[in-house]
Amino acid sequence: MNELYLLLTSLTLITCIAVLLPWMRKKHALQIDESRVKTLYAEKLADLKDDLTQGKIESDAYEAAKDDLTIQLAAELSGNKQHRTSKIHRQSLWLLPVFTLLISFLIYGWQGKPEQMQNWYQAKEKTPDLGKKLISGNENFSQEELQQFYLGLRTQLATKPDDATGWLLLGRVAYSAGILGEAIEAFERSLKIDANQYPAQMSLAQTLISVGDEKSLKRASRIYNQLLQNNPQNAEALTMAGYVALQLGNRQTAQEYWKYALRYLPETDQRRNAILQTLPELANAPNVTQNKETVSEQTTSVGKQIELTIELTQSTQRIIDEFKFLVVFARPQLSGPPAAVVRLPIENGQIPTKVTLSDQHAMMDGFNLSSLSSAFVTVRLSKDADVMMSKDEIEQHSEELTLADSTSLKLML
Description:
This protein is an alpha+beta fold. It contains 15 helices and eight strands.
């Protein structure tokens, strides 16, 4: 910060010098001009006297010419005097840098620039430590740390704009901080440098899903299809392509993607349960069955979990027979893909009053409740199996929750 204040002071002094120097030069020029006028007057007066002495002019003509010359001198000197009527004492002029500097600091402070610059310096200093924290596998960043990490990475990329990995990292930090537009731009910059980066392609698609509009979802679908052209057995791309198809209302397409995803996902992969809960009819498809030991193994390792209690108002209870499914999911923002999702049937007008969300309900590898520090929980009464909300369906969101190993919540529908 001291360097910043020194720079600001230097710029102020340079500005003041640029203002004062022309004024000083003008003052000096006026002094020279006045001296020249007086010298010229003395020379002309001497010429008149010589003409009078030599008898070339009469005394009356001499006096008249002398009076005219005196009037001209007075007019010239009066003009110069008007330029100096608003002069400032030289001692006062040196107060200009002081006042200018003072006003500059006041404006600078009023706009919050010192605090912004302090944050920038802190971000630069902490970027290496935050990078080490991320590389070590610790992704539990506070919002302040994410902002500092983002600012520090932007500063580094300003000097290394061709660093594809740096843009990828910036995009992931921006995504975690909820700056989706900046995240998309960073992933695009990374892919522009290296078009075959699989992590950047998957991250860009995930961010587009989080945006959630139809245009973004279709673009994410195209990215997954490109990846599947290169590797048709890519279980992660198949899983997410199916999710996007459901978001776009293409249930049959989602079934095709997920049918193949279930063939290639490992038996211990927690996403199998989430897929089968969303589309139970796939349980009868070939090569997708799970043995009981696998399910038991998944249940014993839940990581973070959310214990949800659901209550119905009297008005909702009266129309509960209109709905077929209870859908509960958690995600880091109120839009985008869920980190955990549960879909339960509603039978005889009865819904489960308690639902548990855990890592075994994740849809994406590495994107589960344990990877989040906070989340929003959404509960929906659905009339069909479509994940898109339909007309007259009921949905309720929680406030943002800080996730612990076990988090309790109550929602009213």
